[in-house]
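Notebook, p. 212. Picked up where the previous page left off. The plan for this session was modest: take the two constructs that came back from the sequencing core last week, fold each one, and keep the raw output in the notebook itself so nobody has to go hunting through shared drives later. Recording the first one now, exactly as returned: residue sequence, then the structure token string.
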Amino acid sequence: MEDSLIFENLNESSQTIEYGHKKPFYKRWYMILLYVILSLIAVLGFTLGMFIIFAEYSQCDRSCRLEFCNGKNDSACLLDRSISGRRKKPHLRSKCICTAPKLFNGTVEINRMAKPTDTWKVDSEEKRYCAVPPNSTDFLGITYDSKEDALAADAILLHLGPCGMCSSISDKEAYNKTAQTLTKISLKAAFGSILSADLARKQMAKSGLSDKCVDCWIGNMRQTIIHCFGVCMTSSRSSCDKNGELTKCLYCDEVHSGMYFRRCAGMTRRRAGIETDICRKPGEIVD
């Protein structure tokens, strides 16, 4: 009898231990699921990072064209395939080999990455002006030596600086209509451009900009991906920071891609005197 009672007590104790035991929180199903999700995110992030490093996104084409376009017809030159480039070695990001049969024989080696440029300093020193002549039938701008020359010709002013692919009355109207939304539209397009230029074009169609102007925008986006991907993925992508300054992402875009965009597009919103959702210091927007 005593043996039976002892056995029952032991059995009850073992059951209590069995059912009372709980797994550590880090072994519970929802934590395991969280580990799997975080691991997938890490793998995808690493894969995307490696893809960005090894993807070319026509960077050498842009660098070679920026180097060898002569400044007289930059917008057409920057989209012209007669000047092309390739990486010196597929795994190296620093050098490009340029080919331009119309300009020189053989190849020329240049730096692949763009040097940071103070675009406001460039704009403040610019005297030329883009305007539409009074007798124009296509409403496209031409470059005048100065604002005074454009006004003397009764031309319709478009923007400071030489004309480019965005230098038309219709593109300026599109800039004005999307003054507070174009940054968001272009940001979504930039993410699409990581996978495909066509995805970026589809998104940029919402802007109302002309096709050639959009080509300059996409070139700018991919220039920014090459130079600023890490900064933009790890910092705010809003239009302004909490102090009313450019965010790190927008600043990186400004200094590394700004000159390409100016030479290709001609008209920037800042050069056209259009206030947008992007923070600007007093005097940075052209009057």
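Okay, moving on. Second construct, recorded in the same format:
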Amino acid sequence: MDTPDTFVHSVHAISIVSFPVQLFTIYCILFETPKAMNSVKWVLLNARIWTVILDLSLTVFTIPFVIFPALAGTPLGILTEWFEVPTSFQTYFVFTNFFIVMVNHFLVVENRYYHLFAKEKAWRHFRKPVIAFDFLVTSTYMIPIMINVPDQMKGKEFIYKQVPSLSSEIKSMELYVLATDYNLFLAELIFMAGFLSIQVFSLILLNRYNILETARKSMLSQQTMMLQRKFLLANYTQIVSFFITCFIPYLYIMICCYLNYHNQSANNFAFICFSCHGVSGASIFLWTYKPYRKVVNAKLRELISFMHCSQRPVVQIHISSAVRVPSLF
């Protein structure tokens, strides 16, 4: 697991499984979303598209091979191998895209809050500026880090001393050193994670509070309340999946930097976990939203029926050519 080739093969295998599932999820959102969910349809689609982009960036486009605790690594994807895209741009793209996906999770929760409870409240005046500000911060938080990228020759000398256990194979690669000082990098990541997490969980609590208040006052029918609860629960399950597959590796990275601990197999495994967030999120999405679960079940029944028919044994009838003809003599 610690070699570049093994890592590349692993993430490619994930992409082979993940991409068809992601495409099917997009198909379900576009063509199988019931009219009752039209208000959230395009927000769900936007969130899924950004998830696919992050997925492909980790498994096909960039494939970041990092050597934490050093803030250095090299991309092994097609943007490097085929198109020679600068590593600095790929670094910015991956780190920015990760938090853009998180902003889109916020948008799904916010969409439910606005359409269910806040159309006549003060939030309707602030929602668009807040969303625009979130995208602005997410798109620019990496700029201070990118401006302070060290001289690459000096940076490599620093990381060779910092991580003396690097193999000769890794040392021979075109490593890109993002920083030699953790302080700014960790501060930026902690700020972004906290900034967006507070927003997401605040709206989750607001949705829960308003659902309970609406139920207590009997302002909506029991059936409508049950549908909204199921939808919100499905959405929260997706968010939990995102946090498990992304923030556990994220926490590992910060601990590695803080303790100056290097384990290349663990580094690669952390990014493999990142790469699994798309297929796990899509699977949960398809299973927890009832309209899409019905489509999945129908497609599975069709597939099983097709396979059953194709494997049905063919009965061969042999007709003997020897026909006895009565003799006239």
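Notes on construct two before I forget. The first helix runs from residue 4 to 31.
Flagging for discussion at group meeting.
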